[in-house]
Amino acid sequence: MSNTNTPLVEMRDICISFGGVHAVDHVSVELHPGEVVGLLGHNGAGKSTLIKILSGAYAMDSGEILINGEKAEIRNPRDARSYNIETIYQTLALADNLDTASNLFLGRELVTPFGLVDDDAMEAEAREIMARLNPNFQKFNDPVSALSGGQRQSVAIARAVYFNAQILIMDEPTAALGPHETQMVSELIQKLKAEGIGIFLISHDIHDVMTLCDRASVMKNGKLVGTVDVDSVTDDDLLSMIILGKHPHQKEA
User: Fold this and answer.
1) What would the pLDDT profile of 49-90 be if each residue is shown by its tens digit?
2) Is the Cβ–Cβ distance between 27 and 48 less than 8 Å?
3) 237 vs 39, 190, 221, CA distance in Å?
4) DSSP-assigned states of every residue in 144-187
5) Which segments of 40-168 does DSSP mark as H helices, in order?
6) CA distance 220 to 245
């Protein structure tokens, strides 16, 4: 695994504009192994755009990305995957009519020597990865439409981890989940951290960020307000950063 002193990801001085609007304006963030960094800000703050550059959905205008200390060229999602970057979107991109194993291997199915889809092998692999991430998960043969929100999140996370994600982007992972389901996702994130996986977590929910993240980077109008350790700030500090664009330690400067 990487030396923890070397960030898994460094995004340096990233800029991108759309029609003359600076969506991301000279932003730098980093992510270490086994760390969760929350990205906060209002709609239009630039946090999703910044992460779409890392995931290969957008090409930056300027700046650079380093993965494990080495410059990375990320022009599309395939490039991102080659650097073990996986994205779990809020929609989860699951096929509701298929079961867990079929979703896990969607587009990357295991086949028999005769070229047929190997359902038994895929289910065995699905059971193995789920035993690691969510031992209570049992609904392997049900369509994912029958699963709870937390269980669906488990399937999406398992798919990313199975394909060797080292850098995970999670978009609003607890949106529309109840307390029990949110706790399930929290436990999943703790297990990913323990395996040295780094997570960028996009959220509107300050409580989520305070609970799930080690650090929080706040954006406003395309610029980075600042990055703080969550255990050194209050909810109100983060709210002030989001609304006023004011760093909590600004007064001391």
Assistant:
1) 999 999 999 999 999 999 999 999 999 999 999 999 998 887
2) no
3) 15, 25, 18
4) GGGS-HHHHHHHHHHHHHHTT-SEEEEESTTTT--HHHHHHHHH
5) 47-54, 77-82, 100-104, 119-133, 149-162
6) 6
